[in-house]
Design brief:
Blueprint (H helix, E strand, L loop, with lengths): L5 H12 L5 H13 L4 H24 L4 E2 L2 E2 L1 H27 L3 H27 L4 H25 L5 H25 L12 H4 L5 H8 L3 H13 L4 H13 L2 H20 L6 H15 L3
Helix pairs in contact: 2-3, 2-6, 2-13, 3-4, 3-6, 5-6, 6-7, 7-12, 7-13, 9-12, 12-13
Length: about 300
């Protein structure tokens, strides 16, 4: 990640020192081990996925006007939006070049598709948030593109780094997609929890994001209650007491339990796919990683 631009080096050092859990590269390595023997290509895939993931986080903080990331100042908070956008672009280009320099065109195809889908998912969410008309099917489409596509690409890239069998690569992609959906539902549920999760509770409501707990609750609410809740989300989403009113309404009307059940359904579907592979240390480790993503507190 070294360059001859002092500012770029300074920002890169800041990013590397504050790296997260690096779960997506773990999915790359474990998926590769499930399907074969880890190779140099697997390291390329893991690097590529982490670079693209970091790029999207930097850009997301700009889009969301977020000034914190993992308990530290975000890039845009320290260096402003213009530099943050350019850093995200640089990370994206660096990731794509890693695959080309190593002649990994299949990996480039997998990850480029994920970047396209993530952009589509984010734009679809913005479009729907303006009208607050998200149905459950649209919600799944948004998170499949926005979140699940990168985890799906991590798993399929891991498989593609050790085998050319397209059926195997597709099975791992589907496994990753289902885990990605479960992961995002869990992230949505954390917004209603009582733990210290690193972001304020009710942040999705404040940002007018209709997540699964709210969508389910609105679908089963009376017309009067539905109008009232939508009014708060649309017009009083900065009022802490009103946001808490929405949170309590969702909790009282089964939104949390419904979303939890859907999360476990997707997790179990992923485990069924994993059963198609011979049990090994790697399949067990993948299951444990999945359990971590769905049981985490932050």
């Amino acid at each position: 990640m070294k360059s001859n631009i002092a500012l770029l080096d300074r920002v890169m050092y800041y990013i590397v020192q504050r790296k997260g859990k690096q779960m997506r590269p773990m999915f790359v390595f474990l998926s590769a081990k499930v399907c074969g023997q880890i190779s140099e290509s697997t390291y390329t895939a893991a690097s590529l996925i982490e670079l693209l993931h970091t790029a999207t986080l930097v850009h997301d903080d700009v889009v969301d006007d977020a000034y914190e990331r993992r308990g530290f100042f975000s890039i845009n908070a320290l260096w402003k939006n213009k530099i943050a956008v350019l850093i995200g672009d640089y990370l994206l280009a660096k990731g794509l070049l890693v695959s080309l320099e190593n002649n990994q065109h299949r990996l480039l195809q997998i990850t480029s598709n994920a970047v396209k889908e993530m952009s589509e998912g984010e734009l679809l969410q913005i479009e729907k948030a303006r009208r607050l008309d998200i149905k459950e099917a649209i919600y799944y489409e948004i998170i499949r593109k926005k979140t699940a596509s990168l985890i799906a690409s991590a798993c399929s890239a891991g498989a593609a780094s050790v085998t050319a069998d397209e059926n195997t690569i597709e099975r791992m992609r589907l496994f990753g997609e289902k885990i990605g959906i479960a992961f995002q539902i869990k992230d949505d549920l954390l917004d209603y929890g009582d733990d210290d999760i690193g972001k304020p509770h009710g942040i999705d409501i404040k940002e007018r994001k209709l997540t699964l707990p709210v969508i389910y609750t609105l679908q089963h609410a009376s017309p009067a209650d539905r109008r009232h809740i939508i009014y708060i989300i649309k017009n009083e989403n900065k009022n802490k007491d009103k946001v808490n009113e929405v949170i309590n309404f969702v909790k009282q009307h089964g939104g949390i339990q419904y979303a939890e059940q859907k999360m476990y359904d997707y997790k179990n579907e992923a485990f069924e796919i994993l059963k198609q592979f011979a049990e090994s240390e790697s399949t067990i480790a993948l299951k444990e990683l999945v359990e971590f993503t769905t049981e985490r507190k932050k």
